[in-house]
Amino acid sequence: MQTFQQFLNSQVPRVDLVTFTVDLLLTMILTLVLSVVYNRYGGALSNRKEFSRNLVIVGMTTMMIITIVKSSLALSLGLVGALSIVRFRTPIKEPEELAYLFLSIAIGLGLGAGQRAVVTVGFIVIAGVIWVYNFRRSSFEDQSMHLMVSSATPSPDLLNRIVGVLQNHTLAIRLRRVDETADSFESDFSISFDQYENLDELKRSLRSIDENLQISFLDTRLG
Prior knowledge:
By secondary structure, the chain is an alpha+beta fold. The protein folds into two domains: about 1-135, no CATH class; about 140-220, Alpha-Beta Plaits, CATH 3.30.70. It contains nine helices and four strands; from the N terminus they run H-H-H-H-H-H-H-E-H-E-E-H-E. A four-stranded antiparallel sheet has the order 2-3-1-4, with helices on one face. Helix 8 (about 160-170) runs antiparallel to helix 9 (about 200-210). It is elongated.
């Protein structure tokens, strides 16, 4: 036991300040680019600009932590104990937000471990995949809006009836989220249509299902 304690006490991490500064700046650059990619191509309904600021902070903080603890077993064990008492109370409802958050953490982890080439190449490839994916669906997004429908008195087949109406009045629909309980219903769709005048007809058709439906439209280009 005494030998193990001496081993822990002798592990003093030595961090080269120049290397740390370069890696920290590279982390900042890559996460800033990531935040731009998220703002440009993200489809989350929440405020994308507000969330994208966290990507830079999370990436740089992760990089700094990994740089400090990677050469010290004692600090690594202390980090595990410190993180065990952390509780996150804000849920992430969009899987897309979680994906970008993991990518920011991966950048910080890789650069903290000194893997500059791997992180840079991996980020470029992932960013390219995001660009190609959104380029292929750009024609859909240019004419699309987010539709949010909610009800305080939902019927068992409410979702099917809403989807039926959307199929008759839109060019394309994509169901993004459904939250349903015994006394509440919320759904989010991405819809595409020929012209904005069709919105009035769509609203009337939705009201015919239930006059108490709460209907909201949001331009996808707003972030």
